[in-house]
Amino acid sequence: MSRLSVAMFPLRLWLLPLGLFVLAAPLWLHVWEPAMFLALNHWCGPVAAPIWTGLSMLGNGWALLALASPLLLLAPRLMWALLCAAPFAVLFARSGKGWIVSPRPAAEIDNSQMRIVGEVLHNVSMPSGHTTTAFAVATAIFFALTPQQRRAHGWIFLLALGTGLSRIAVGAHWPGDVAVGMGLGWWAGLLGNVLLARVPARWSEPTHWALRAVAVLVAAAVYVLLTDQIDFDENAPAQLVLAALASLALLLFARRSARSLRAR
Prior knowledge:
Elements: H1 11-23, H2 25-28, H3 35-43, H4 49-56, H5 61-67, H6 71-74, H7 76-99, H8 105-108, H9 129-144, H10 147-150, H11 155-169, H12 175-196, H13 209-227, H14 236-263
Helix pairs in contact: 1-12, 4-11, 5-13, 5-14, 7-9, 7-12, 9-11, 9-12, 11-12, 13-14
């Protein structure tokens, strides 16, 4: 197990994002933009803003931790998959934004022609960090499942795709930013699984310090959700729901951990 590397996945899975980047080249080269951005932004217009802002939350690390908190009890290994992919997603998104000077739609399009939800953003557009994070988590969890389980969980990519579409719907990103974010997130998820293969099985035990450290991280997510705004004002009710979900998961995890200690 210790010698596992990127070769644990077929080459075609690693090359898939390259195909996406080539197909999306007219987008990130701005050949088809801003026309496609405006078309998608207007197409999403009839859908209420809280739907899009809620989907956008799936690209926020704190919100994802809270949403995934039941995995502490139900499937700790999937929680580790999420955490293993997260650093790669951050690295890819931050590096792209640092190297590529790319104005956001609001900086190039008359704002009266588009729907903007929340803060008007002008800079560091490429890639979409929310999309990168959402696809990193979706890919990491999907490939941490058994081949049989994967057949019933393809829907997780639909949620990630919804996050990417939401970034266009709220006026924050170009379609090209989203396409590149999808590919980078896929790579981050695969790399997360390579790292997951090196995580000892005992780290998934409720009495182990590593899983307890993850519980502390989830508690931090609860604090952020209760004290800070996650991207949009419209997300306030969803933040309370996620905080309640994570708090319940933490209480149940603490009870299971205590029982496991007493059973020793």
